[in-house]
User: Which sequence fits this backbone?
């Protein structure tokens, strides 16, 4: 038996979330390459909050165990690449959406979805980084591969007090960029400066409709917000710069013109963490293991128990959570 957050759908299509004890026989089956993992830690991400509260149709199969990532140890494996005792990390691949996820003490997943946890990171640190830090690193890699460098100017990070934003601030500052952090929480300015932000600006300066082209300022952007925020960020990106887009906290819409792209050569780089290919995942986790600031990890992450994730989910969606919530599934 193992404990899990368990989501069910009522006859009137409402989501019911509860903490439930499940039998191992309930775990999803695989014809081949299935791996059973004893989970140590998961996290509570924005998408998990949507699934638990039912505010968005994240869940595609019912019943569902939410949790889009986890870190743990292989318990049993039908995949020759994985042996009992191997330390592993999983991000994305539809877990917590169409396949039972990480907010549980045990999971069974495809061996193709697993990454060996870097030796430099323990299980808690791997989930303190989690999908948010991994996504932030994918954004950093995308900007680097486009040629964005510290000498070219400032980097804007939107949604900076959230999980992705917090790690983006820390990672970019560690690489020598002058980072400007955008947040709606004035009280978090000291927190963001401690992570490496050189300047903190009010998100209201970006959140309303703006001009198609604005004064050039940003060499690059890491955006987890979307909508008018991303539109304004692109409009103020310098010639040849780039914006890495990975989220939609303000909205899925993108109300802007093509002017930044055809008049300034600005690039809009889409960053997807769910289905990213294995070589890119390995590169991201290698960079995180080598370059993530341990002090920043401690500042960004807070530990909660499995049952606490239920009450934390609506607070996360309301923007009341700073940084990362790491879920100790055995607490």
Assistant:
């Amino acid at each position: 038996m193992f404990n899990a957050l368990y989501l069910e759908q009522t006859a009137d299509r409402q989501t019911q979330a509860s903490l439930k004890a499940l039998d191992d026989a309930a775990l999803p089956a695989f014809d081949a390459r299935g791996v059973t993992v004893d989970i140590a830690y998961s996290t509570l991400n924005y998408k998990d909050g949507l699934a638990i509260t039912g505010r968005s149709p994240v869940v595609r199969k019912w019943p569902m165990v939410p949790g889009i990532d986890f870190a743990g140890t292989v318990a049993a494996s039908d995949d020759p690449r994985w042996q009992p005792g191997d330390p592993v990390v999983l991000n994305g691949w539809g877990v917590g959406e169409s396949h039972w996820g990480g907010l549980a003490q045990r999971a069974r997943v495809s061996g193709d979805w697993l990454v060996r946890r870097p030796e430099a990171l323990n299980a808690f640190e791997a989930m303190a980084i989690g999908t948010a830090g991994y996504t932030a690193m994918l954004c950093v890699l995308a900007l680097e591969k486009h040629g964005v460098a510290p000498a070219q100017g400032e980097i804007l990070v939107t949604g900076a007090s959230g999980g992705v934003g917090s790690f983006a601030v820390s990672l970019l500052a560690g690489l020598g960029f002058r980072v400007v952090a955008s947040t709606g929480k004035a009280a978090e300015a000291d927190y963001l400066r401690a992570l490496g932000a050189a300047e903190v600006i009010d998100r209201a300066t970006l959140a309303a409709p703006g001009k198609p082209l604005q004064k050039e300022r940003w060499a690059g952007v890491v955006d987890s917000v979307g909508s008018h925020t991303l539109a304004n960020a692109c409009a103020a990106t310098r010639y040849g710069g780039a914006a890495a887009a990975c989220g939609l906290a303000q909205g899925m819409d993108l109300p802007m013109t093509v002017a930044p792209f055809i008049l300034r050569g600005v690039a809009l780089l889409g960053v997807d963490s769910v289905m990213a290919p294995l070589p890119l995942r390995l590169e991201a986790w290698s960079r995180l293991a080598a370059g993530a600031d341990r002090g920043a990890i401690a500042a960004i992450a807070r530990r909660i128990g499995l049952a606490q994730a239920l009450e934390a989910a609506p607070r996360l969606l309301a923007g009341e959570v700073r940084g990362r919530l790491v879920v100790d599934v055995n607490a």
About this structure: The chain has a mean pLDDT of 95. The longest strand covers residues 34-44. The domain at 2-117+293-328 is CATH 3.90.180.10 (Quinone Oxidoreductase; Chain A, domain 1). Residues 123-146 form the longest helix (24 residues).
